[in-house]
Design a protein that fits this description.
Largest sheet: 5 strands, antiparallel
Helix content: 40-55%
Shape: globular
Strand content: 5-15%
Number of strands: 10
Strand order of the largest sheet: 1-2-3-4-5
Structural class: alpha+beta
Length: 414
């Protein structure tokens, strides 16, 4: 078989992958190709302060699920407003001849194929095809009003993309134009062709055994131990977009949910979804999806969830903001006021006054000013909220903290 001959179009296209949000993390496990990606971002930046804010956003887990397609990586990034911004990075795809050269080089060295299968990217192979972006190759774009180049939301997406690259170098190959299964299939064809040319296959020789030996009683060896539990849930396969078939984005969402649920049940013995009410599960599903109203898939998801739970889109958006603030505990703080006993709640106002915030008024588990509110949860944490002056329209903001001053500082952004 000629490895350069045109191939049939695969039954499904793996040139689109959506990776769940990576969550908060103080630092990434650096690989040389992830470091090169970050260097390309930092060589592009005109304002180091925006880079620092973007890194802080990434480390705080403010980047939603990331979708990678050839030449483009997109995600919704949460900034200072309730609604997230649609952010993307563009990167030039490799021309066909460059891909042919890359595949020939990789197939010609068995160590390269072994490294790729082990999620490792040989530097010589990457340099040969110029896979990694040079300074100025990344083109950021964001729906926010910030005219920085890049803005802090694009910088946050770029830093989270580096974490994806650390875990799987095939993400870089997909950005450059080819999906993982497509690359591996091409390498398999080239490797088979090379082996057939170098060494003809010997005729098959089937092992034989005497019949009386086959029927003799014997003790079977013990079964091998089970495989170790993977560190994280696996990625679902790419689903075909067939006319009249199910929506591939919905299938991807369901498969990702099932993988996460199965992994949690395997590692902890507990089903993370079973204790949730229908409303709590609806909020969880919406919170795991990019922000509301910005894509047809998201609008369809929010419409279905609000119809199923008999809530309004605003109810769901507010609940999603609370879930992203602190999960099920934050949702309870949003929806269930209560009367805390004497103790930390009573000490909060003096602490706020000592820190220069004297105007908070108490009501049940809440301390309020006309535009800022702190709510005390049953978990012992303070949750920040904000509203426009003169309106009783409170939205969750900031990071929960056991210290009311810390929660207020997080809500104010530093």
């Amino acid at each position: 078989m000629n490895p350069r001959a045109p191939q049939r179009t695969p039954r499904h296209d793996d040139r689109r992958r959506t990776y769940p949000a990576l969550g908060a993390r103080s630092e990434r496990t650096g690989t040389w190709w992830g470091d090169a990606w970050v260097e390309a971002l930092e060589g592009l930046a005109l304002d180091p302060a925006r880079l620092a804010r973007g890194r802080a956003y990434a480390e705080a887990g403010q980047v939603d699920a990331i979708t990678v397609t050839p030449g483009r990586i997109t995600a919704y990034v949460h900034g200072s407003r309730p609604r997230p911004y649609r952010t993307e990075l563009r990167l030039r795809t490799l021309p066909e001849q460059a891909w042919e050269d890359f595949l020939d080089t990789a197939a010609g060295e068995p160590a390269h194929i072994a490294a790729l299968l082990d999620k490792d990217l040989p530097q010589a192979l990457a340099d040969e095809a110029a896979l990694l972006p040079a300074s100025g190759d990344l083109i950021p774009d964001c729906s926010c009003p910030d005219d920085g180049f890049p803005c802090k939301h694009a910088a946050a997406l770029c830093y989270q993309a580096a974490r994806l690259l650390d875990e799987d170098p095939f993400v870089l190959l997909l950005m450059r134009g080819r999906g993982e299964q497509e690359v591996l299939a091409a390498l398999t064809r080239r490797n088979a062709t090379r082996m057939a040319v170098e060494r003809p296959a010997p005729p098959p020789q089937l092992p034989t055994v005497q019949a009386r030996m086959a029927v003799q009683p014997r003790t079977l060896p013990p079964l091998p131990p089970p495989f170790p539990t993977p560190a994280r849930p696996g990625h679902p396969p790419a689903f075909p977009d067939v006319r009249g078939g199910p929506d591939p984005l919905s299938l991807d969402l369901l498969a990702t949910e099932a993988a996460i649920r199965a992994h949690t049940l395997l590692t902890t013995g507990q089903d993370p979804i079973a204790p949730l009410t229908t409303w709590q599960d609806a909020v969880r599903l919406a919170a795991a999806h990019p922000g509301s109203g910005l894509t047809s898939a998201t609008r369809a998801l929010y419409t279905a969830l609000t119809r199923a739970t008999d809530r309004t889109p605003t109810d769901l958006a507010r609940a999603v903001a609370a879930w992203r603030q602190g999960g099920i505990e934050a949702l309870a703080v949003l929806e269930s006021p209560w009367d805390p006993p004497a103790g930390p709640f009573d000490r909060a106002r003096p602490a706020l006054s000592a820190a220069g915030f004297p105007d908070f008024r108490p009501h049940r588990n809440r301390l309020s000013t006309p535009t800022v509110q702190l709510r005390y949860g049953r978990d012992g944490l303070w949750y920040g909220y904000e509203s426009d002056a003169g309106r009783d329209d409170w939205w969750p903001r900031g990071t929960p903290d056991a210290d009311p001053v810390g929660a207020l500082t997080a809500r104010l952004g530093g």
